[in-house]
Design goal:
Layout: H1 2-16, H2 18-24, H3 27-76, H4 83-123
Helix pairs in contact: 1-3, 3-4
Length: 124
């Protein structure tokens, strides 16, 4: 978001000072600076999307991994895995799946709300 803010700020400055830019023929240097800021912003967005995808995959796969790990540990510890135990465990894990998937999304939304609140408080 910081990269986007810098690019938008520069774009606004360029648009507001268009007459001066044209008068002194500064179009090319300003365009290069603007494109450089845009490239840095796109690099940051790509990195954020990559991390977001990996984290999303991790949190989506976690319930399955927890279920498999639990069954493996249960049998390794010498217990007999019966159909009744397996179905009961699967039902309980299914109930826990939604909170496990939703908690990271809620954390992301809370962080977004904090950023928006700071920006609005600064603006007002």
């Amino acid at each position: 978001m910081a990269m986007r803010d810098r690019r938008v700020k520069l774009t606004n400055e360029v648009l507001q000072g268009m007459r001066i830019l044209k008068l002194f023929a500064w179009e090319d240097p300003m365009l290069k600076e603007l494109l450089a800021k845009r490239d840095r912003e796109l690099t940051q967005i790509r990195l954020n999307m990559l991390w977001g995808g990996m984290i999303s995959f991790l949190f989506t796969a976690t319930p399955v991994l927890v279920t498999c790990t639990t069954f493996v540990l249960y049998t390794v510890l010498g217990n007999k895995l019966t159909a009744a135990t397996a179905y009961t465990s699967l039902t309980l894990f299914n109930l826990l799946r939604f909170p496990i998937v939703v908690i990271p999304l809620m954390i992301t939304r809370v962080i977004d709300l904090i950023v928006v609140h700071k920006r609005l408080s600064k603006f007002l």
